[in-house]
Amino acid sequence: MVDFNKILDAGDVDAGEINVVVEIPTGSNHKIEWNRKLACFELDRVEPTTFAKPCNYGFIPQTLDEDGDELDALILTEQPLTTGIFLKAKVIGVMKFVDDGEVDDKVIVVPADDRNNGNAYNSLDDLPPQLLKQLEFHFNHYKDLKKAGTTKVEGFFDIATAKEVIKESQKRWVEEA
C-alpha cells in the first residue's frame, strides 16, 4: 500500500489547489479511515444507513487537525469517488466543526478540473443553499443514535479561512514529524 503522507503533500494552499485523498464515497455508511501508522485504509465502523455520507469524505495529506487526525475534506462531486484515489481539488470554504469537544474542521472542495459543470463552483456562494443545510444537518446529527449532542457545526466560512485552517494543520504536521 502507498503511504500518501510520504508521497503527497497538501498541494498549493496559497493558490487554493490542494491534494485530497478519498476515504468514504458519497452514499456510504462505512466509516473508512486512513491509518497512517499502518499506511492503509481501515473500516472503523459501520454507521446506520440513515447517516450515509452526503458527499465524498477524505483528508489532506501532511496535515493534522486539532483532533490529531489528518485534516478532513468534504469533496463535492455529482458521482461517488472511490476510496483510495486522490485528486487535485479547489478549496471553496470550510465547515467549522466540533466533535466530542475537539476541533474537527472540514475543508470543502471540488475537483480542480470539473468539465461536467464547467468549473461552476468557486466559493460557498455558488453552492445550492439546500446542500449546505444537508451537510449541516448530517454533521450535527450523525452520532445521535450513539452519542447524541456530541457534534456541532459552528458555521461555514470562506476560502481565506479555509486556507488558514489548512496552514495551521500543516504546521501541526511538521511539529509532529
TrEMBL record:
Q: GO MF terms on file?
A: inorganic diphosphate phosphatase activity; magnesium ion binding
Q: Matching InterPro entries, A to Z?
A: Pyrophosphatase (IPR008162), Pyrophosphatase_sf (IPR036649)
What catalytic activity is recorded? diphosphate + H2O = 2 phosphate + H(+)
Which cofactor(s) does the record list?
A: Mg(2+)
Top EC category: hydrolase
Which EC number(s) are documented for this chain?
3.6.1.1
Query: Which residues of the sequence carry a binding annotation for substrate?
Result: 31, 45, 57, 142
Q: Which UniProt keywords apply?
A: Cytoplasm, Hydrolase, Magnesium, Metal-binding
Q: Which residues form a coiled coil?
A: none
What are the subcellular locations of this protein? Answer: Cytoplasm
Which residues take part in binding Mg(2+) 2? 72
Q: Which residues bind Mg(2+) 1?
A: 67, 72, 104
> Signal sequence: where?
none
Give GO cellular component annotations, separated by semicolons: cytoplasm
Q: Name one GO biological process term.
A: phosphate-containing compound metabolic process
Instruction: State whether keyword Nucleotide-binding applies.
Output: no
Recorded family membership = Belongs to the PPase family.
Cite the record's note on assembly.
Homohexamer.
In terms of HAMAP family, this protein maps to: Inorganic_PPase
Function field:
Catalyzes the hydrolysis of inorganic pyrophosphate (PPi) forming two phosphate ions.
What is the protein name for this chain?
A: Inorganic pyrophosphatase
